[in-house]
Amino acid sequence: MTSRFSLQGKHALVTGGTRGIGLAIAKGFLESGALVTICGRKEGGVENALESLSDYSEQVLGVASHVGKPQDVERLLGAATERFGPVGVLVNNAGTNPFAGPIIESEDWAWDKTMDVNLKAPYVLSREVAKGMIELGGGAIINMASVAGLTASPLQAIYSVSKAGLIMLTKAMASELGRQGVRVNCICPGLIKTQLSEALWSNPELEKAITEQKALGRIGTADEIVGAAIYLASDASSFTSGAVLQVDGGMVI
Predict the structure, then answer these.
(1) What secondary structure does DSSP assign to 77-93, as a single string?
(2) Within a 10 A sphere around the Cβ of 55, how many other Cβ atoms?
(3) What is the b/e burial string over 126-158, where b = at least 16 CB atoms within 10 angstroms of the residue's CB?
(4) Is 40 in contact with 16 (CB distance < 8 Å)?
(5) CB-based burial label for 205 (10 Å; 0-12, 13-18, 19+)
(6) How many CB atoms lie within 10 A of CB 214?
(7) Is-contact 26 17, C-beta < 8 A?
């Protein structure tokens, strides 16, 4: 059974792979034998991530790319394919949350930016990568959603809507692509200690309120998402598609 969790020889593309959950997943995939392309918006961030993954330098490629920009996506896929061949595993992990507050106090730019990165980018990438997966005879797409997409989150309405949309995109694509060998699933992390969520866990009162909602009574770490990602990327999940996997410490029960 252990061999079913192996990613040996698979080419995985991890967006937002230069820090936090994305970097942890990239490292876990490399340890499981995958060839991994990571991307992030800033060249410096990509270089730092590659340095932290230096033990796997022959297995990893880093590309500075903004997944919300079509021209960057085209360049990213071109570089990834040229280095390691067609993408067999796609992890849509890049995300943003530029506005915290009530919808009635928000502005259009916050909606547009959040939707472009959190929803449109996974839609575009998944659409293009899935075409190659079909030619390969199959593949796995993993969308990084959030428990915020399952229940309305205070002061995170726009972010919640984007993640709810990503969950439905997962289900729709799973339904369409299953018979062509492409599995599409999503992971819904709870509060994980990353830079993106720092405004929540760095506030003692907010942290206390959130941890009190969790069955495990604590905040998670990026490493604790990796096992779920390896499962969904590997042959161990060969009969799993359209799944919404909560990894939230028992927050939404």
Answers:
(1) HHHHHHHH-S-SEEEE-
(2) 11
(3) beebbebbeeeeebbbbbbbbbbbbeebebbbb
(4) yes
(5) exposed
(6) 18
(7) yes
CA 199 to chain centre: 20
pTM: predicted TM-score of the whole model, two decimal places:
0.95
What span, in angstroms and rounded, lies between the C-alpha atoms of 152 and 57? 41
Q: Is the pLDDT of residue 10 over 90?
A: yes
pLDDT in tens, 61-99: 999 999 989 899 999 999 999 999 999 999 999 999 999
**The two structure tokens encoding residue 75:** 């360049």
Place of tokens 């990213």: 76
Say which amino acid occupies 195: Q
Residue 28, token pair as written in the block: 């876990």
Q: Which long-range contacts (CB under 8 A, 24 or more apart) does 225-230 make?
A: 225/21, 225/24, 225/25, 225/187, 225/189, 225/192, 226/24, 226/25, 226/27, 226/28, 227/28, 228/187, 229/25, 229/28, 229/29, 229/91, 229/142, 229/187, 230/5, 230/7, 230/28, 230/29, 230/32
* Residues ≥6 apart with Cβ < 8 Å to 54: none
Instruction: Catalogue the active-site residues.
Output: 159
- Which positions ≥6 away from 108 have C-beta within 8 Å? none
The CA–CA distances, whole Å, from 117 to 65, 131, 191, 195 equal 12, 21, 19, 17
pLDDT digits (tens, 9 = 90+) for 220-245: 999 999 999 999 999 999 999 999 99
Decide: helix, strand or coil at residue 158. Answer: helix
Q: Which of 54, 129, 60, 138 is nearest to 91 (CA)?
A: 129
